[in-house]
Amino acid sequence: MDLTPHPINPTPRPPGELEELKRVWATPKGWRIVTAVNNTVIGLLYIGVAFLFFLMAGVLALLMRTQLAVGNNDFIGQELYNQMFTVHGTTMMFLFAVPAVEALGVMLLPQMLAARDLPFPRLSAFAIWAYVVGGLVFFSTIFYDLAPAGGWFMYPPLTLTEYSPGDNADFWLLGIGFIEISAIAGAVEIVVGTLRTRPPGMSLARMPIFAWSMLIFASMIMFAFPAVILATMMLEIERSFGWPFFTAALGGDALLWQHLFWFFGHPEVYIIFLPAAGLVSMIVPTMAQTPLIGYRLIVVALIATGFFSFGLWVHHMFTTGIPALSLTFFSAASMAVALPSGIQVFSWIATIAAGRERFRITTPSLFVLGFLFIFTVGGLTGVMVAMVPFDFQVHDTYFVVAHFHYVLVGGMVFPLFATFYYWAPMVSKNMLSERLGRWVFWLMFLGFNITFFPMHLTGLLGMPRRVWTYPSELGWDTLNMISTIGAYMLGAGVFLFVFDLVLRFRPGGGGPENPWRAGTLEWLPNDVYSTRSIPFVTSREPIWDQPNIAEDVREGRYFLPNAPTGGRETIVTSPIDARPQYIIQMPGPGWPPLLAAIFTAAFFLLLTIKLVVVAVVCGVIAVAFCLIWTWSLDPGPAKGSVDIGGGISLPTYATGPTSHSWWAMVVLMFVAGSLYLAYVFSYLFLWTVSPEVWAPAGSPALPALGWPATSTFLLLAGAALVVTAGHLLPPAGKFGVAVPLAIFLALACLAGSLAIEIAGHWRTGLSPSANAYGAMVYLGVFLFGQLAFTLVIMGLFTIARHAAGKLDRERRVTFDNLALLYHYTVVQSLLGLALIHGFPRLVG
Amino acid sequence: MRDRSFQAFAALPVLLIVAGCVDVQSALNPAGGEAERIHTLSWILIIFCSVVFLGVAIATIIALFGSHRWRQRLAGERLVIGAGLIFPAAALSALLGYSVVIMGIAGSAEGEDGLRISVVGERWWWRVIYIARDGRRIESANELRVPTGQPVRLELTSADVIHSFWVPKLAGKLDMIPGRTNTLTLSVSEPGISRGQCAEYCGGAHALMSFFVIAMPPADFETWLARESEPAAVPVDEAEIQGHALFVQSGCGACHTVRGTDASGTIAPDLTHVGNRHSLAAATLPNNAEAFASWIRDNQHIKPENLMPPYEIYTERELGQLATYLESLR
């Protein structure tokens, strides 16, 4: 395929083309805006709501600082204070930080990649609405004494029903549930978006650093979130049904939660930090007017951070009494992660020094410099707490409170504010005020340091975290008062920012074009359809290096200056070198994602307050709306190939590994695989802790080998049936009864295998609530059942599509997805059978 | 409503002044082997980090405001690799080696045949059981006495949720986890008082779960332990006798033990020698008659959610008698 870097289409473009593009991508008017799915609309909603959570959790922080201003204070009582710090931490970590960076990905990535939208707009909309509804309900529990009080880390046994009766802890699990959904959905979007919707010519080596950081962010979510998904499932199951995963007396272990939680929780810090570092790597070159120094080193550093971050979760558990050898290993790993950060910090400094002109001091650059200052301090105190003996002293004290606020506020909030000021003109008619911006920055910067710097000392003087009061006589009063004063300064800075926002922020149409003279694609002229045409990219900073690119893009001289299929679409390119492959047809506004999200939220909420029947009804409605929306997917090859300009003609449909849908399914399989590995870890971990409850000595002997053998046979038969069904798919317009029959039998095999596995264990008299072994065995069955349930819905859906003439040999993405997940399930279940039936026999 | 209880609360300073004042819970005022080694490490780290921070700050300032020549020196991947990769790798390896050495010293200091004390974290107090060399178990609560100049082995467990045992002046913290036993060795060089506090959030009254550690010369400690193992003092004067009667009638013995009497409950702190301790309610109140009285009546205000019910049934006189009795348990 010959791709010329030069403009390719003749101009002027045919009349009516631009109007068509505008009509296709029009944002719904009035209250129908809630049905919008375009990334610029829902991205803004996403950021807005995440920022709202930041403000609300910030108010909680101010109230807590007021309580701690002096010793022996009783402004806020113990019970409310305990709820407040739990909600503050949970909200900041789960409802603000992760969603905010994810929102920036949704908002900025398509613009940076000159894509018209993310590949799965309705999935984004669904995830965002579920998060909005679920998050707001979670936060509101603080107003009526229903908020959890177990800390954002929710360590059992404190959070088990015995010590936390009432629904409070369940509301925490609910809030986390939503963020799990939206994070996974976002990861799918971002992985597929960055790898498949880049503009032609933007090879991986030309991808903006922010896109790199979001790609790594999404990969980390794929491997980190499943651990906490499993942990929260186990905690809710133990709370509701008494399966003793965490109860020591029955062979469980409280430390299992800590391992799973921090296996997620530590990478989460980098999940938050990496995108923010990516943003900084975008702003610094612009303000220095020179390309980033050490682009390749930074990419390596980002990948290394992602990798290392999975090897240091135990540094949150240094004081739990684990052996010295493990301590040393995790201490070394925790220090090693400082290296990639060092590379990034010095890359930024080198870039500032390399500027053709002096680094421009604007509000975004102030926030970037503030970030550099604060984050460096946070990184250095991070090195301190990575030293095990030092951590023995400062762990769970105000020193650590200071450390992680330096890392997280420095590493994420300051870059976020830089982002607000920097990218506001991309979405708002006005820029934010540079004059007020200086005030905002200095209030926030000084306020932050006045609040948190003294806390290092407060911690060394012996003040533990999570205390609602302290005796005045321990010498902590003055430092606490200073911190409180700083907190109000910080609050004033944020308030001034909100004031500026109200005054000047006007979304809907960009403001001044490229006001910072940046080099990347998000600063091309854009409208609701993103850029008028999708450029061919030959450098990392196309606006700097490709003369006249903005003009050529606006005039439609590049690819896809129109809407050839008559609907929303963007170009899908190959993952490494970004060669155009096909045109993805994308959905427009619609109710199903919103309604599916509301009913999903209702399902979880009603389940939390134990209204099971109504909850199930809502769950069924939610699934129904998902099916309504997926029914319109998989459009088939009916529209043939279309001309995207420059003599290039692309198909409008793809199947197999070329298809974006296949990629999304693979991402989902990675998520499911990580979840299952977390399960295998948990099973083996509990065995090392309590081998005495394991079969055959401590529990009923395993079912005879005939049981798992039959399950295995059924699984393999099912897989064979699915393969056969794939070969039997008839050509378009034909209906063959063999395909539905094969799918149906495959589903029956799956159900049969599940039933035999349950019956086998049940007949031995094994009970899930008897001990940790029983709980783990049945949890394995539960995980299998979850996938089987999904597959049954997908299978019946596939049969229905075939019956409706929407599935055949060519139009087969729906079937391919079913087949992928089915085969994955077979592999996972075979592994599960080997573990459950083999391991106790091996060691017993 | 709270005022009265906070009068008692406000009496704590007296105690703390006695105890050596504001540094009684400070990691910067070490009085024991491990804490001293960590204290040295802390200063090394603080100085190291300050120097590195200064270096980064100077580099940034040069990058921002330096002359063209100076800026050119920083503008390249050499800086990134040298300052961002090689220097930290070397410096951090050295620090890691040092911390491993410190951990090794701490690990080797464990005395196997010295005094053992079992400390059990409870919501929200500390059960303390001295295990003498002959195997006798002497139960106390909310205060640790240790002999100076010899390692003391603490066996840390929990009765309910996770707690963490932390006396900053003496050693780093170690968690108390249900189903596990963690051991911590304390060695205190000089006689004196240190304050400790629960460092792992344990719900409810976590903020009010503290204790004092009193280090005594070995001879004094032996004398004290011998007394501590005795049954409780017999009430002598009228008020004490009345107080004891009230204690028995009200069923206090269902939860508390007073050795030598019928009171043998095990779910609450042992009160056999409660009058001897430096504080009440896990270092929430000073130890005097007034504090006893306000605790019995107002404990849910003084220490919300604690598991003892408030007793508002007593007259002032009866409260006084109970307090006198409890205070006499020396």
Task: Using brief descriptors, characterize the structure shown.
heterodimer; A: mainly alpha; Cytochrome C Oxidase, Chain A; Four Helix Bundle (Hemerythrin (Met), subunit A); 6 strands; globular; B: alpha+beta; Immunoglobulin-like; 41% helix; 18% strand; elongated; disordered N terminus
Describe this structure in words.
The complex is a heterodimer of chains A (844) and B (330). Chain A has helices at residues 17-24, 39-68, 78-112, 121-140, 168-196, 209-241, 254-288, 295-308, 324-336, 338-354, 363-386, 388-394, 398-427, 434-460, 477-504, 542-545, 549-554, 592-608, 612-631, 660-689, 706-728, 738-763, 772-803, 813-843, and strands spanning 526-527, 530-531, 568-573, 580-586, 641-645, 648-651. Chain A has 844 residues and is mainly α. Chain A folds into two domains: 38-504, Cytochrome c oxidase-like, subunit I domain (Cytochrome C Oxidase, Chain A, Up-down Bundle), CATH 1.20.210.10; 664-843, Up-down Bundle (Four Helix Bundle (Hemerythrin (Met), subunit A)). In chain A, the strands form three sheets. Chain A has a two-stranded antiparallel ribbon. Chain A has a two-stranded antiparallel ribbon with strand order 3-4. In chain A, a hairpin with a 6-residue loop joins strand 3 and strand 4 (580-586). Chain B has three domains: 3-17 and 231-327, Immunoglobulin-like, CATH 2.60.40.420; 33-108; 115-228, Immunoglobulin-like (Sandwich). Chain B has a five-stranded mixed sheet with strand order 3-2-1-5-8, with no helix packed on it. A three-stranded mixed sheet of chain B has the order 4-10-9, covered by helices on one side. In chain B, strands 6-7 form a two-stranded antiparallel sheet. In chain B, strand 6 (163-165) and strand 7 form a beta hairpin. In chain B, helix 1 crosses helix 8 (289-302), helix 3 packs antiparallel against helix 5 (77-108) and helix 8 (289-302) packs across helix 9. Chain B is elongated and about 90 Å long. Chains A and B meet through helix 3, helix 9, helix 10, helix 11 and helix 12 of A and helix 1, helix 2, helix 3, helix 4 and helix 5 of B.
